[in-house]
């Protein structure tokens, strides 16, 4: 019985470590793919600026925002490794705001959906503001329950 308990205890430690390594390798691979896509967007953006054939500024703005989306995802992966395997919530909010701005720029034909997309941006900004008001470090004691 004791041997079985030791084996299960060792397995309970090994499985999360294996999954953590798999997650880290996957994120490194994703960062490499996103880096290539970021460079590709830079090249396409450079071609758009040099050729100057397009009078459609929506395309240019959409490309710029796609570039920032790639950039934010890569910076989020970097922060994941720097902050001891933790994704900061604020990066998800940045990505959400950028994605919604891009959606408004690209698809702004329907005023009602544009309004709702703007409301989503407002909610994300309010959430970010509330998140910055709260302290980052939570108190270790339950001082508010003490009488």
TrEMBL record:
Its main localization is membrane
Q: Which GO terms describe its cellular component?
A: plasma membrane
Membrane topology, as annotated, equals: Multi-pass membrane protein
Does the record carry Cell division as a key word?
no
Transmembrane portions of the chain: 21-40, 60-79, 91-108, 114-133
**Record keywords, A-Z:** Cell membrane, Membrane, Transmembrane, Transmembrane helix
In its keyword annotation, does this UniProt entry include Signal? no
Q: Where in the cell is it found?
A: Cell inner membrane
InterPro entries associated with the record = P_starv_induced_PsiE, P_starv_induced_PsiE-like
* BP GO terms, sorted: cellular response to phosphate starvation
PANTHER family named in the record: PROTEIN PSIE
Annotated family: Belongs to the PsiE family.
Record-given protein name: Protein PsiE
Source species of the chain: Planomicrobium soli
